[in-house]
Amino acid sequence: MKKLNRLLSKIFAFFYLFIKISKIKWIKNYRSSSESIIWIKTNPIFTLFKYLKNNDLLSDFSLIESIVQHDLKFKIVFGKNIGKFKNRRIYYSVSENCNPYNLANYSATLFHTVYELEQQGNSLFPNSNEIKYWENKAYMQNQFKELNIPHPETLIINRNYSKQDLLKIEFPVLIKEIHSAGSRGITRINNETQLHNTLKIVFDKGHSNTLVQKLVNMRKDLRVVVLGNKITSFYWRVNSTDDWKPTATSFGNSTEFDNFPDQWKELILSFLPKMKLLTGAFDITWENDDLNTTPLVLEVSPSYQINPTLPERYKKISYKDYKKKIFVKDAYYKQYVDAVFALKYEIILNHLILNKIGDLK
Questions:
Q1: What is the Cα–Cα distance from 64 to 50, expressed in whole angstroms?
Q2: Is residue 189 within 8 Å of residue 197, measured between CB atoms?
Q3: Using an 8 Å Cβ cutoff, are 174 and 101 in contact?
């Protein structure tokens, strides 16, 4: 029954997305000679399964609709053809699909491409500074340290590490693969033997570095989405058990949308400009879940997925049960697609205003 509900939800989501796509009046703004390019990183015809699985269809068409809504003229370019352009504005969606060689460090592939396009005089959104943070936990943690952003104590361990490098580690700790998302590649380590065995597994996958991070005593964390100088959404991911586990909802944790810690709002809003990011989703927690202590930033991503707020009439049920309600007017799949389109519109609006593009004020 669970698999059937999940399948039906995806099918209905695709139908609803296609209805929204059919309403985009993109033809009127399409110009083959336009200086603005929407880059579809792979050809969907040849990579259809991956294109749908990674939400690229939704991301790309919400981007197209946002460009149309802001009345920019544009052209669409697919895949490797992007390399021939110079002195253009290039908009694109971020995803793991931009990894033609299936490298362990897939974020480096996208960063290199974006950086080289910028060297050809192009202006990209997201830009290379933003892509440095995308699923690159080593760079992220180094920036947290340099910019005085509070975070758990973290070591970056190289594949050629020595026992001397591990002497200061106090167990338990977490090993976090540097290039991963959705709580993938996270392992709790309780002793030295586990540490060496897990490091071997990680490096055998092709990673050159990995993180060893202090295990924060927490049973919940806060996902905060920040755009410019505003918090656009937030929710708590709560582990109701006594045992540690990653707080991603895929591990059975619950989701709560109330009780934002207002005493930390200004501090949280200060992180984004320090990193020179337009938008970002922060994962934040507190030692012993004590909101009176300094918040610790676990991660940030300039490209992220969102959870729409639980509708008022479903406040008494779990978010997991809400997702199962398919045949209702405010079904999850509708709220999710609409929320992605609305957020993309606001992101592009902020980008255009910041860069003084178009006739926006």
A1: 20
A2: no
A3: no
**CB of 249 closer than 8 Å to CB of 319:** yes
Strands 220-227 and 75-78, by their bridges, are: unpaired
What is the b/e burial string over 262-271, where b = at least 16 CB atoms within 10 angstroms of the residue's CB?
eebeeebeeb
Contact present, 190 and 171 (Cβ < 8 Å): yes
**Residue 31 to residue 67: CA distance in whole angstroms:** 13
Comparing C-alpha atoms, which of 224, 240, 234, 219 is closest to residue 286? 219
pTM of the model: 0.91
Give 113-123 pLDDT, tens digit per residue: 999 999 999 99
* SS3 state at 158: strand
Helix axes 332-354, 56-69, angle to 10 degrees: 50
3-state secondary structure 344-359: HHHHHHHHHHHCCCCC
Q: Which burial class, exposed, middle or buried, applies to 130 when counting CB atoms under 10 A from its CB (0-12, 13-18, 19+)? A: buried
Residue 133 neighbours by CB under 8 Å, 6+ apart = 139, 140, 143, 275, 277, 280, 300, 301, 302
Report the alpha-carbon distance of residue 168 to residue 238 in Å, rounded: 31
Residues in the chain: 361
Cα–Cα distance, 294 to 27 (Å, whole number): 51
SS3 of the chain: helix, strand, coil, percent, to 5: 40, 20, 40
The answer to whether the CB of 279 falls within 8 A of the CB of 349 is no
* Structure tokens, 24: 């985009």
Find the range with the poorest average confidence among 133-147, 267-281, 309-323, 332-346. Answer: 309-323
Largest CA distance in the chain: 64
pLDDT tens-digit readout, 8-59: 777 878 788 888 888 888 888 999 889 999 999 876 665 666 666 667 889 9
Which candidate, 69, 122, 119, places its Cα nearest to that of 91? 122
Contacts of residue 355, Cβ cutoff 8 Å, sequence gap at least 6? 123
